[in-house]
UniProtKB/TrEMBL annotation:
Localization per Swiss-Prot or TrEMBL: Cell membrane
Main localization, broad class: membrane
Family: Belongs to the UPF0718 family.
Listed name of the protein: Uncharacterized membrane protein YraQ (UPF0718 family)
Record InterPro entries: DUF318, UPF0718
Transmembrane segments: 12-30, 42-69, 89-111, 123-146, 152-175, 219-237, 271-292, 312-335
Organism: Metabacillus malikii
Keywords carried by this UniProt record: Cell membrane, Membrane, Transmembrane, Transmembrane helix
Membrane topology, from the record: Multi-pass membrane protein
Length: 336
């Protein structure tokens, strides 16, 4: 019984603290208080809330899609629709990413649920890195932000499609689809509750809500921590240093990849930030920012470490970083 009560108490306390934070931000004027709050702290607060408010709708979308998968999609169905050959299945997995309007804020719970349902690890990785860029909402926002430079738009989409397959193939060669998910006590207890309630003929609607709420609170604490760390970097990072090396053919893509990782922008809004650097950074470095950031950023790194084994996450980060950087260098030499 304590195994079920303690997680509920912790989540309730976390929710109350978050509610208090929002109340202080929205209704308390810090300038009227007797002490002066440093401008840097206020900027961290503003950045933190902007990242959080931007990400929460997509987290909600992700956990509901994850809950729907848990409730309505069976392991047998996934095994039926996916090609048996591990290599041939890479292409359908990449095409699947173009269907769902999911950004990187919401992709982790969906991929974790698909893997739990029987999707091979390397196909989950293809979906993890491809879906946040290939979906139609991201294409539309990138087209709108770079309407005068369609080369960036099509290069972003083309690279995302090809690299998602390449990354998935490399992960398959390294891990051979061995299980890399963590299984926490809370998750195991939650699955027991689901089975018990299912034995009472629980409706699918209630089951979906149960899974969604459980996963939202589980994901939310890592989102909050990641958003806070990202807000610190956004506030105190010296951007003048970046502009000094922005046109370097070799350094600027790496710098913009790091910038995309730290800023942790939603993939449906990052194109507008990238467009603001158009006069400072090369075309290749802008594409690096637009491709690498949605595949790997500070927020989803923390989520990945929370729900996948550390060795897998470390290898995944190294593979994505090397593959994206080398592809940008090649593209710069050929046509960018």
């Amino acid at each position: 019984m304590n195994r079920l009560v303690l997680p509920f108490v912790r989540e309730t306390i976390a929710f109350l603290l978050l509610a208090l934070f929002f109340y202080l931000f929205l209704f308390v004027d810090f300038h009227e208080l007797s002490f002066d709050v440093p401008s840097g702290i206020l900027m961290v607060n503003t950045m933190f809330l902007s990242i959080l408010l931007e990400a929460i709708p997509f987290i909600l979308l992700g956990v509901f899609v994850s809950a729907l998968i848990q409730t309505f999609v069976s392991e047998d169905f996934i095994k039926r629709v996916l090609p048996k050959n591990a290599v041939f299945a890479l292409l359908p997995a990449a095409l699947l990413g173009a269907v769902f309007p999911i950004c990187e804020c919401a992709i982790v719970p969906i991929v974790r649920r698909l893997i739990k349902k029987g999707m091979p690890l390397h196909l989950g990785v293809v979906f993890l890195v491809g879906a946040p860029i290939l979906n139609p909402v991201v294409f539309a926002s990138t087209y709108y932000a770079f309407g005068s430079n369609l080369e960036i738009v099509y290069t972003r989409m083309g690279l995302a499609f090809v690299l998602s397959i390449v990354v998935g193939f490399i992960i398959y060669l390294i891990f051979k689809n061995k299980g890399q998910l963590k299984v926490s006590k809370e998750t195991f207890a939650g699955e027991i509750v689901v089975k018990e309630e299912g034995s009472r003929k629980q409706s699918k609607f209630k089951a979906t809500l149960f899974h969604a709420s459980d996963e939202f609170f589980e994901m939310g604490k890592f989102l909050i921590f990641g958003a806070f760390i990202a807000s610190l970097f956004q506030t105190f990072l010296d951007r003048s240093f970046l502009t000094e090396i922005g046109m370097s053919e070799w350094l600027s893509p790496a710098i913009m990849m790091g910038f995309g990782y730290i800023l942790s922008l939603c993939s449906e809004a990052d194109a507008f930030v990238a467009a603001s650097f158009g006069g400072t950074f090369s075309t290749g470095s802008l594409v690096a920012f637009l491709v690498y950031g949605p595949m790997l950023d500070l927020k989803n790194t923390i989520m990945l470490f929370a729900f996948f084994r550390a060795k897998f996450v470390a290898v995944f980060m190294v593979v994505v970083t090397i593959v994206v950087y080398l592809s940008i260098i090649v593209c710069q030499q050929l046509f960018l």
